[in-house]
Protein 1
Amino acid sequence: MAKSIRVLHVDDDPDFLDLAGEFLRRTDDRLDVETATSADEGLECLAGTDVDCIVSDYDMPDRDGIEFLEAVRAEYPDLPFILFTGKGSEEVASEAISAGVTDYLRKESGADKYALLANRVVNAVERHAAEREVDWHQTVLGNMDEGVYVVDEDCVLQFVNYRAQELDGVSELDWTGQPLSYLAEIDLLSESEVGWMREGVDSLLAGESDEVRIELEPAVPAATETVELRLTPLDIPGEPDLVLGTTRDITDRKRDEQELRRYETLIEETTDIITVLDDDGTIKYQSPSGERILGYDSGEVAGTVAFEYIHPDDREAVRETFRTLVDSADDSIERLEFRLRHADGSWRWLEAEISTEVEALDGYAVTSRDITDRKRRERERERYAAIADHMADGAFIIDSDRCVEHANEPAMMRADTSLSDVTGTPVMALARAMSATDADADRFERALDSVFQRAGTDDDTETVELDLALPTGEMTGEYNMAPVRIDGEWKVVATVRDITDRKRREETLGTLHEVTQDFMDATDKQSVAEHAVRTASQVLDQRITGLWLYDGEADALQPVAISDRGTDLFEAPPTFERGEGLAWRAFERGEVGVYNDLSEEPDRYNPDTPIRREMVLPLGEYGVMAMGRTTEGKFEDLDQALARILANTVEAALARADREAELRTQHRELQRQNERLDEFASVISHDLRNPLQVLEGSLELAEQTGDSTHFERARQAIQRMDRLITDLLTLARDGEPTDVGPICLADVVEDCWQNVETDDASLAVETTRVVEGDQSRVKQLLENLIRNAVEHGGSDVTITIGDLGDHPGFFVEDDGQGIPEADREHVFEVGYSTSENGTGFGLSIVSDIAEGHGWTVRATDGSDGGARFEITGVDQTE
C-alpha cells in the first residue's frame, strides 16, 4: 500500500470540512485528513501532529489564510501549503505568493474541485519529499545507542536524548529544564551519584579537567545494570558554559571483565573464542568467552555439531573447508569468515582460524573473533559511499595543498571526467575550467581560502553562488564549504548544488509579483487577457500563448488574445464549440491539462497542428489559457507551477474586471435613478402642487357660492393630476424592454390611433416594416408621439409614420408648426412643454423607451415644415 499523506484542512465551516474530507479520501485513499476550524486550532494541531500538507481557507475569523500561512512559514518554512478559498482576487494571490504559498486554488461548484485539490496536495507533497534533505544531525542523534545530555553551569538539563527504553511513560521533554537533583527525586539515581555528577560538571567548567567519567547504576530493569557517563565541555557560540554528557550501557562489559578475571589464568586474557572440534565437527570444548560473545554457555554447546550454528548460506562452504583440512596431511591453517547464530537469534560475523589436528587437544583448534562491528563499519562505509555517489549534489574533498583528494560520482558526471583524472589536480584549475567567468572562479578561491584560514573557529564555513559552464550545460551552483580534520590535517569538504531552477523560480516569481499591479490596473477582460498573454510570453518564456473566454450566448470559447509567436503560427485562432478539443475539456473539468506529446492525444482539436506539446489551464468560469511549444520535450515541474500561479492570478483579475464592470453599470444606473428621483421630486413639489391648489380653491368657491362652474375647473385639475400621475408611473417603469419579439409597425400604429384623442387629425401609415422590441413599450412611444403631434400641431393635423429608407429605423412627423431649432435639444427633458395642457413627460418617456431598446431618437424638421421624430438603430426582422 502507498504511503499515506496526512493533510491538515483548516476552514471555519465544519460542514464543509466534513464534506471536503470525505471527497478527498474517496478521491485518493492515501489522504488522511485532519481538520481545524480556525488558524489557531490549526497551529495547535500542527505542533502535536506530523503533517505532510496544509489546506487552508482564506476568509476566517481572528486570522485569515495569509496570516495563518505566515505563522506556519515562521516555524515550517518548507511545509506544503495550499490556499483553497472561495475569495479569489489578485490581492489574495499576490499576498499568498509573497508569503510563500505552495499553490493557490479557488473553490468552485461541483465535486471535481476536490479531485483537483487532491491532485494539488499529492503533487505538492511529492515535490516537497523530493526536495527535502536528510537532517543528518537529528538522524544520527535519533539512532545513537548512547544517551546524550547537555547540562548548564547551574546543573540544569538543557537537552535530553536518553536511551533508557525501559522508562515507560517518561518523555524526554519531562527531563528538559529539570535540575540534576530531579533524577534522584524520581529514584532513578542515588543522591551520591547525583553529587558525583555535580562535582564533575563543576570540575569541567572550572577548567580542572578535560573529561570526567562516572559509573552509575540507574534504577531500571536488570537488563541495564551499569551505565558509564562521560562528561566533556561543550562550546556553543552565543550560549553560556555547557557540559555534554554521553551515556553508554556497560553492563555487558562489566560482566565480561569479571568473567575474564575469573578465567584469565586459563585463556591468558584473550577475548577470542577458543573452540575444539573433533573430526566430524562436534564441539568438544568452548572457552567462556563464547558465552559473552555468542550467548551460549560452554556446557550447553558441548556435544553439539558446530555447523548447526552457522548461517545456512555460509554452512556448506565452512563444512567443505573443514573437511579439506581434516583430509589434508599437511600442517596448515585455514582462515574464513562466516555468520553464526547468537543465542538471542541474531547473527554475528566471526573471523576464524582453523588449524590441523592438535594432538594435545585431541581435536582441531578453532580461534574465532567477533567481527560484527567491523563488518557493520564496512557496510556503513559502502552505504556512505553509495549515498555519496547517489547524492544529487556534487561533493569534493580538498586537501591542505588545495588539491582534489576525492570527489563523488555526481561531481564527476557534471565535470564530464573521471576521478582518476582529477585526483591530485589543483582545485583552482578545475574551478577555472568549470566557472563561467574569471570573476566566479576568483570568488570560489576567496571562499576556499577563508575556510582554510578560519578552520576550527566558530565561523569557519562559507557559501557562495557561482555561474558554471559545464560540458553538460550552464547552471548556477551553490557551493557550501566546511573544514574537516582528517588524520590530523585540515581539509575542506565542498558540496555543489544545482540551484538553476531555484534562481529562475525566485526571479520569475519576483517578476510575477511585480506585474500583479498591472493586472490590478486592467479595467476590462480584454486588457486582462492581453496582459496575461504578454506576461506568459515575456516572463514565463511561453512564446506561444493564447487566451479564450467563454461566450454564454454562443456556448463556445472565443479567442481574445494571442502572443506574437502564436499569431505567426495561426492566422485565425479557432473558436472551440462545446465538447471540442482539449481546451473545452480543461474548461469543463476545471483541471490543468499537460500534454508532453500532443500527437498521442486523440481529442486534440487539429491533428495537423505544429504544436508538439501543450499546457491548457482553466480560468474558472471565464475560459482557458493555453501555452504550447513546437519542439519536442516536456514541461518541467517549474514551468507547470509558474503557469498555474499565473492562471490563478489571471482568473482573479478577470473576476475583478467583471466586478468593476458591474460596479460601473450599477453606478451609471444609480446616477440615472438619482437624476430621475430629482425630476420626480420636482414634479411632485411643483407640477402636482399647482392642480392640487386649483382643486382646493375651486371646491372652496363652489361651497361658498354654489356656482357649478367651479366644479368644472376642479374636474380639469383632477384630469391634469391624473395625466401627471400616469406619466410619472410610465417614467418609473424605465424604458427597459421585458418581452422582446417581432412587431408589425402598421398594426401597432392602428391600435395607438384608437387609444389617443385625435379630434379631426388624420393618419398616414407608409411602412410595412417588422421590428424587434417590447410591444407594450413601443405602443407607449408611438402614442406619446401621436398625442404630441395633436397637442402642438392642431386638431386637424396630418400625422405620417414611415420608414427611414435604407437606414434601420422609422419616423413620425406632422404638418403642424414644427419645433424651433433652439428648442429641439430640450424637448426630451423631463417637465419641458410648450403646451399649457401638456405634462412635460411625453417626449421624455419616448426618449427613455428608445434608449431602453438601444435606439436613438432625435427631433428635426418635417417634409411639410412640421415636427419630425426619427428613431434609428432599430433591429429589423425580414
Protein 2
Amino acid sequence: MSLNMFPLIQSAITVALEPEAGTQGSGNVQTVGFTAGGIGISLSFKPETTAAPLSQDIFNKSLIYGATHVTAPTAPTAAYKLPERMRRIDAYADRVVAAINNIENGSDGERNVKFQQPRQFLEPAGYFSGGLLAAGYDPHEKINVTFTSSVRELNGASHVTNQNIRTYFAWEIAAGALAHDKVERGGTVNVQSMHIEPQDRSKVADLESMGNKLQRHWELEISQPMRDTTGALAQRSGKADAYAVRGTLQSLANDKEGFEQLSEAAQTAVGRTLRRNGQVIVPNIYGYPLAGYAFVPFLEFKGNVESRPHKGVMIDLKNGGVTEIWDDRDFAGWAKKNRNHLLRSFNAGDRQGTQDAHWPKAGDVLDNLIAGNHATYPGYRSLVKDEAVPVWETFNYTESRDSGYRLKYGNLDTGIAAHYQEVNAKNAVWSDQTQVFGSSQQNWKAAKDLWGNTFGYLPGVGNAGNIVFGIHDSIYGKTSSDRLGGTAAAVISSLQLAHEVALSEGLRGVANVSEVSAPGKNYTWSPDSSESDLELMRTPSASQNTAEVVVESPPTVNPTTDAPATFAQMREIEFRGQKYFVADTPDGGDGVHYLLRNPDPVDPSKWVSSGIIAKPDEAGVWQLRSVVGGGVESAFIPLEYAQASEALDAVITEQSNAAAPVTQAQRQTFADTLTKLISESNAEDYDEVGEYIDKDSNAINESLRTGERTVELDMFLEEFDELNSFEGKAYRSAFVTPEGAEKIKNGVGQVFKDSGVQSASATVRNATEWESWATEEAEERGNATQQVVYVFDESLPKKNLSTSFLPDHVAVAPGEPMQVLAVQEADNKLFVYLSKPSKVPEYTYSLFDGSSIA
C-alpha cells in the first residue's frame, strides 16, 4: 500500500465519524466526491447491511410474549400488577401447549424441527425463566435472604452460632427454592430464623405465587406428558435426538474444512454411520446414561460385554460439540471440561443414587472419574460376586446388573431413537427433580449446575432488547456471541431438514444438493479454544445476538397486519387460517410461487421469511409448493436459499432508505470497512490495473467478451491475478437484456457466467451511486434495458481494487461461475443474489443475455 493512501483513510474516517466535516451533496448520508473519467462517484458512509438469519431468538420471544407484545419493548417492567402477571403467565403456558400440539404436523423431519424449537421450554430452567419474562420479571434478578441459627441459654440470653446469606435468582424462587429452604422457628433451645429485606418481601411473595401457578402448569402440561415413556411427546423427543445425531454427522460431512480436521478413523466412522445406517451409542458413566449426547464408535459394538466401546466420536447435541475419544484418559479430560453439562445430563434419580453400593450418586462417580483413575466401584464378576472396577473403566460401562442401566445402542435409523425416548422420559420426572434440590438445605446454591442456562433479557440491542436462551453461561456471565447457547440441536435439525428437502426437490442447477445444507455461510465446525474439539459456531457474518435458524413461528403468534411502510408493494394474504404478506410478483425462485413473509417482531419495518413457499390456485386458495415428481408437500425452502432471500430484503431496504439518518455506529462501521480495504490493497502497484480503474474498463471488458486477445489484456489479467483478495459481500449495479432478465428470474439454482470483470462496491449505497457508469456501459452494449443489482456472496472469490481514485472498488474475476440463490424485483430493479456453486454443471448461462454457455 502506498503512503499517499493514509491521508485518504484519515479523511474518510473523519467524514464518517464527524457529520459536519467534508459534507457534499444533500441528505443525511455524508459523502466524499471522487471523479472517474468525468463521472462523479460519491463515496457514501452508510454501512453494508446484512440480513440476519431466521432467528431462534424471534421464536423464543414470540412464545414468551405472544402476538400482542412481539412488536412492543420487551424489557422486564415493574408496571404490571399481580393479576396482570398471573394472566400473562396463563397466556404464556397456553402458547407453550399450542406449540407442543403443533409438533406432530408435517413431514417427520418437520416434526423433529418443531420439537427442537421449543425444547428449552420443555425443561424446568427454560420454562420457569420464560414464564417470569412473560410476567414482566427479569428471571436473573437477585434477592438476598439471611439465615441465622442461635442457641438460647438457660438464663434466657441467646447467641448466634451460624449465619449465612444466600442469594436467590427470581426464577429459583418461582421454582420453589426459597419455599424449601424456609426454616422452622425451632424449639426452646435451638432457634432458626430467616430474614428477608423489607423492600424485597412483597416481591418474594409475588414470585412464590407466580411460581405456584407455573408449577401447576408445568406438572400437568409438560412434565406428565414427557415422563409417559410411550406417549407422543416422549416418542418425538427420541426421534428428534436421533434426527439431530444424523444432522450433526451430515453437517460435519458437508463442512470440508471441519471434516478434514477429524482423524481418518473419525471420518470413516462418520461416513459409515451416515451411509450404512451405522451404530450410535447413548454414552454412559457406570451405566448412568448421558442425555443429550451421542457416541459413534470407531469399531461397532457387537454385544460382547468385555469389549467396552470407549474409542470413537463424542457428540454434544445441545451445544454443538464433537470430540474424538481415543482412550479413557481422553474421556476424563473431556468430562472435566464439560462437567456441568454432564451433571445436568443425568436424571434426578441417578444424581441422588444411594440405593446400594451399585448405585452411588452419579455426580460423585463423575467427579471421581475427573480426579483420576484412583477410585473403584463394584462391578460384575459372576452372579454372586463383584469385582473392583477402576473408575476410568466406568465410561460406556457394559456390565451393569440392572438391565435398565446396560449400554444403550442401536442403528441410526432403526433403534437408537427408542433409547433416547426412554432416557428423556426418565429425565422429565419432576418429583425426582425437587427431591434432588431438597436433599439438603444447601443444595439450591448448586441449582445452576443442575438446571443449566436460562432465558435472560439482554438490554440495549436495538430498541427492544433480545430474549436469549443461554445468554448467561451457567447464569454467571455472558456467553461468547458466536456460540449457540444450547440451541445447537435446533440449528442442526433445521440444516438437516433443508438438506432433505433439497434432495427431494432436486433443485435445478445444483449438482451436489448435499452441500445446500452445509453450515457454510452462517455455521461452521471450528476448533474450540483448546483446539482439541470441534464446535458448531456462527460465522462472523451471522447475526451476533439472534442465535439460530428456525423454520416457522409458534402457531399461536399472529403477526400484526400493519405492513411496513417501506414495503408498499407487499400484499396481505391468508394461508391455512394465518395472515402472511407476499410480493406483488412471484419470488419463490420458479417464477410461479411466492415466499410468504411476516413483519419482523424485532423491527416491524422489516420482513422475516416464514419459510413457506406457496401460490394461489384457480379459486384463489393458497397451496403449498409440491415436491417435484410427486410425494409429500414441503413447506420449507433450503436454508441457504432462504437466507439469500433475506439478504436481498436487507439490500432493498437499505437502498430505499438511502436518505435516512446514519447513526454513529454505522459511520464507524463504514470507516472500519474502508480502512481495511485501503490498507490491504496492492492495486496501485500495477499499471494496467490502474489504467482499468481510471479509464479503460470498457475496453478491457469488450476484449474479454469478444474473445479478442491483446497484449494489454494479457498484461492486465496477469496483474489482476496478483491483486490481494477481498472477503465479504459486494454489490454491483448493471444492466442486462430482457432475455437475460427472464433467464435470471426463472434460474434460481442455475449457474451463470460473464466473460467480463464484475466491478463492484463493498457497500450497498455506493453500488447505487455507480448506476450512471452502469448506464453508459449498457448503452455501449446495445439492448440492455433491465437494471439489475447483484449481491455477490462471501463465497465468491473477489479481488481488492481499492485505490485513492476508487477506495471501495472490488471485483469478481472474468468467467467466474455464479449460482443464483434468490431473485426479487423492487423499484424497477432486479435484485439477484449470487453464490459460488458447489459444482459447475456442463451447461451454464450468460449473465447478460441468458444464452447457453457450453
